[in-house]
Amino acid sequence: MTTDAARAAEILADHRASIDRLDAILVYTLAERFKHTQEVGVLKATHDLPPSDPAREEIQIARLESLSKSAGLDPEFAKSFLNFVIEEVIRHHKKHKS
Ligand SMILES: C=C(O[C@@H]1C=C(C(=O)O)C=C[C@H]1O)C(=O)O
Q1: What is the DSSP string of 25-62?
Q2: Domain 3-97: which CATH class?
């Protein structure tokens, strides 16, 4: 391997180590989020509240849009990611109800 190629391999390995650490943070963060939403699901089922709350979601989307802009993340991506997560949460809440 040339010195350049060896250096590139080193940089690639460093980036991948960071990516692996961040993926672990994402997984643990999501798991923590789902623990709270599961508790919310139990509360909603107990008190006969609807599984979804579109007004709350609207506030969250607006907040995430602003956070994404300051973080340098594509706000559209952040929005579809949050919607994807919320969809799963609501699916869980509906299960609590049945
Ligand atoms: C967790 C809740 O239930 C649903 C899921 C949400 C979420 O995952 O952030 C937000 C609103 C609700 O549609 C809630 O009402 O707070």
Answers
A1: HHHHHHHHHHHHHHHHHHHHHHTT--S--HHHHHHHHH
A2: mainly alpha
CB distance 36 to ligand 1 below 6 Å: no
57 close to ligand 1 (CB < 6 Angstrom) = yes
| ipTM, 2 dp | 0.98
- Separation of alpha carbons 68 and 76, rounded Å: 9
Q: In whole numbers, what is the pLDDT of the chain averaged over residues?
A: 95
Q: Indicate if ligand 1 lies below 6 Å from the C-beta of 45.
A: no
Whether residue 19 is predicted with pLDDT greater than 90 in this model: the reply is yes
